[in-house]
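Give me structure tokens for this 186-residue protein.
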Amino acid sequence: MNRLAAFLVGTIGLTLAAFSSGALAATECNTGPPGNPPLSGTVTGGVVVNAGDFCILGGATVSGGVQVNAGGILIVCGSVINGGFTAEGAANLIFGAEEINCDGNVINGTVQINNTGPGVLTPAPSIGLERSTINGGVHLSGNAGRIAFASNSVSGGLFCSKNAFDLDDEGLPNTITGAKRCKFAD
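Here you go.
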């Protein structure tokens, strides 16, 4: 019986050691302005964009979600994000903008964008979420700048609260499955 107990304790210890060393930290993305190579390929453990960072994801497959912190700038083209997307106080967020030849994206998980500023990449809106498939709800709250939300497919609903502007679909309607609690500009 003592041998069995020792074997089990040893096995559990090895298992815990193996799994605890496997934890992955998020990759900080600061690729710089357009013209620099984007972050691409497979990224495991998520991506974080910190204050003052300018990140471009191009052809990336991210597991673990993407987070943009206050003051960060993110452009996402032709990428897949597994694990959702969150932004709190970002400076600019651009996804799938046709105007800059940026392919649409797939986001598997909830999109939560709060308190984005008026935007620093003029004449772009402060939030541009276009030509993307979003498998989860989209929540936009307290954002100060213009929001382009065009030609997306959303399964999970679209929710807005206390944004400075109504959403603009740029004449390219969205397909939304679930509740729609946002106003679109005329």
